[in-house]
Amino acid sequence: MLSRTANEVYWMSRHMERAENTARMLDVTYRMSLLPYRIMEPGEKWAEPWALPLIITGLATSYYRRYTELSAESVLHFMVLDASNTSSIFSSLQTARENARAQRGAVTIEMWESLNETWLQMRNRTFADLTSRSLSEFFDWVKDRSHLFRGITFGTMLRDEAYSFIRLGTFLERADNTARILDAKYHTLLPSVADVGGAVDYYQWSALLRSVSALSSYRKIYRDAITPLRVAELLILRDDVPRSLHACMNAIYEILQGLCDEERLEPERLAGEIHAQLHYGKTERIFKQGLHEYLMNFVDQIGALNVELNKHFLVPTYQ
Amino acid sequence: MTANPRIYFDEMRGLVGDVLPHYRPYADWIEKQPAEYLAQKRQEADALFQRVGITFAVYGEEAGTERLIPFDIVPRIIPAADWQTLERGLAQRVRALNMFLRDIYNEQAILKDGIIPPRKVLENAQYRSVMQGMRVPGDIYAHIAGVDIVRAGEGEFYVLEDNLRVPSGVSYMLENRKMMMRLFPEAFAGNEVAPIDHYPDLLLDTLRQVAPQGVVDPTVVLLTPGSYNSAYFEHTFLAQQMGIELVEGQDLLVRDQTVYMRTTRGPKRVDVIYRRLDDDFLDPQVFRPDSVLGVPGLFSAYRAGRVTLANAVGTGVADDKSMYPHVPDMIEYYLAEKPILSNVPTWQLRKKEDLHYVLEHLHELVVKEVHGSGGYGMLVGPASTMAQRAEFRERLVANPEKYIAQPTLALSTCPTFVERGMAPRHIDLRPFVLSGKEVRMVPGGLTRVALKEGSLVVNSSQGGGTKDTWVLER
Question: Can you tell me the distance from the alpha carbon of B314 to that of B310, in angstroms, rounded to the nearest whole number?
């Protein structure tokens, strides 16, 4: 298939997945903000829950270029409706829709109509009706639209190369996001030492699990208290949790084994390497290396994989 | 033509007022439908078009502005016998136009025989000297033609324009039918409406027929200027329907006079390009050097016969308004047949006596730019103001060769659903004629309707809408 087509459908699904992840992240932030939390010492202002989305996405600098204060309202506006923020839900849905419009021939009519409908509804939302109704209702709507899109893709699309690139986009974006969410909790929301294992800590972990739809899975698997070690195992190493790093890399590695050939081997090799670390990884080792370091290394590797995809498939440079 | 411009031939009721036989089943059906039901259906149609994203981009507005082309829910119905005449007439006309193009880019017999003054062709801005002496597969230049047809007077058909460059609108023809069947499946009962859905198959088959010699399983692509082009919807639609790649200039490259597209498996050879890009932008090495939409080297590959362009380069010289008056001569010259379809009488202002007549009768004529399209830069005499006529008078005197004039046709009307119910509105028809090894078309075409009361301008850029077009099988 055309490289430009592959590139645009890949980013179409990445943006749809990103919109969903942003909604999940804001939803958990919103829930956390409803809980009484400890005001941190000076210099520890990141403990404010509404800083969480900015840390996870790495958008704090661009946020403070436009907004002076950290407030629920501003962060919501920035992450949901701000057209100048290319990662806002508004922009993500717009980009997903624009890419689908440009590549209508590569996706099914149902996929296009779904993305177009999502965009038309999003475009008509104002900040007022976002906050006047339940915020969670809006986040659920975004998630629903993403689920719907994925379901339509799964249910209507020819299993061709375009389908592979669409799936790659979904899983790369998701892997990146899960790693970032996990890292944010570990690093920024840790309450004071006295609170570890306390009610706030518990609530934060369960909110985090809920944000990646893994709370009930956790309960089913462990039937016990929530501990960082187990959360890390669940979201990093277990391959039966659909948003875990291992599950994402299973999918990515498998897709790349199908896509790569003799002339284009590097993406498959790199994915295999990342996959092996998860497949044969142990929680103790991860914590010994340091969870933050481990996760940031993973995010870098996902970035490197994206570069290889560009070079070999999406933006080839031959003349 | 007509003596009294206020009486129009109506597709449903003719000149007299009784419902014509071919409209009878539909008229019976629609009379039974409550007004609110129709109004609701019309809203539903708008919502569906918006959802499906059948929009066109508007030039001169913010980039990315998308608009719906208004869809009218009342179909334009053509009886079988009328269509048979039209079909024969269209095939004849397009055949002659292709022979004309082959001739002027090779032997130029029609010029040597004095049928058309040579300088009218050779000095025409649309004549491409780079095409001289080059043969194209099957001698076909205009693979896709969109011939604009109007009815006037007592219902006679006239050809208004031959569009042989990159005619658009066929996606609306197809989507309008889908919309009608979705909204009013019951309205089709009692009418044997000829199907049109196979147009993309015919188009693909036509494109494959004109592949370069020796290519067994040709790769066909559709070349678009990109997603900001006003017809982008149509480009994606047709590419999808034909199952071919939709490429932009940046996706193609030329190596050793061969065209390739950049794919995820490396370069892949391209044999036929259905290009929806004007000549000027095709290849910056040959045409406009500032074009970023085209492909450097494309023309050299074309000239070497390694790739087919559809339509060919240089077809504009045949659909130019200054060439239009000569089309009946072409038919007689190349085919030795009488033209089946009539031209609209045309005054050519470069002729002194024509200019004189037109200046005297500006208030009753339509004046068009020879190279204009899309309804821009024209004067509709009866609807014009003194000031507008004065302005045109100056332009005509200054550059008479740039203009032609035609009588204001009493374009036929068709019942149309407007704010206050059904009312007659003026319409035209654009059938799409495909030329490969043979000349083929699907029954009907795109009916455009001037939604403003009294307006004769049907272009979508000027407030026109579209209708489904039914050709009855008997």
Answer: 11
